[in-house]
What we know:
single chain; Beta Polymerase, domain 2; 2 domains; alpha+beta
Amino acid sequence: xxxxxxxxxxxxxxxxxxxxxxxxxxxxxxxxxxxxxxxxxxxxxxxxxxxxxxxxxxxxxxxxxxxxxxxxxxxxxxxxxxxxxxxxxxxxxxxxxxxxxxxxxxxxxxxxxxxxxxxxxxxxxxxxxxxxxxxxxxxxxxxxxxxxxxxxxxxxxxxxxxxxxxxxxxxxxxxxxxxxxxxxxxxxxxxxxxxxxxxxxxxxxxxxxxxxxxxxxxxxxxxxxxxxxxxxxxxxxxxxxxxxxxxxxxxxxxxxxxxxxxxxxxx
Length: 267
């Protein structure tokens, strides 16, 4: 199913269930960055309401998303439901808004996508489905805030992930690896490395191509495998070995250390 068809169903259900609630709808993520792969990629969106969603609005959205799951379970349409006022200031830590991840609606914690990278992607590359064009909204895109967030994410989430991968490959009986994990671990940190050094954002495919330019040659085989795995949606038929994941773990560690050293030469 293509993006236009999927979004058409999504908008139709939202408008029928919650008339007038959604005033803005923008596509970000892989589609906005020209790297959407049918059957592999989710559709990442930013949905905008006039005011912050109330508990009643959330209950209405629960109904809408139940209908969406029934009529169109895939591709997942994921992202936050924000108010216009949220987008004209830097993304706030602790801002609670409804959000979806892998098709599941939440309102019980912070949405990861409320961050400076999402703001920048929307302002610079966002595809308008409904509402004013992103450049007319007044979205802040402070490069220092964006880089700080990237460094923090690498030093927290990605450091923990890298350590988990390296610990797992060292076990006498390592786990079963798959293409999805290979692509996520090899390409995710490189996307942040790219932002830390350029201020811009890139897709997973773009991160792999970038990695082949800047990362040590010892990682290039794993990067080629990760890009091939993502492109075929896990249907390559080539097993992901622990040897490959050991290289990926080392690549993740290299990304984190390289960005940390650039951000703080004393580190």
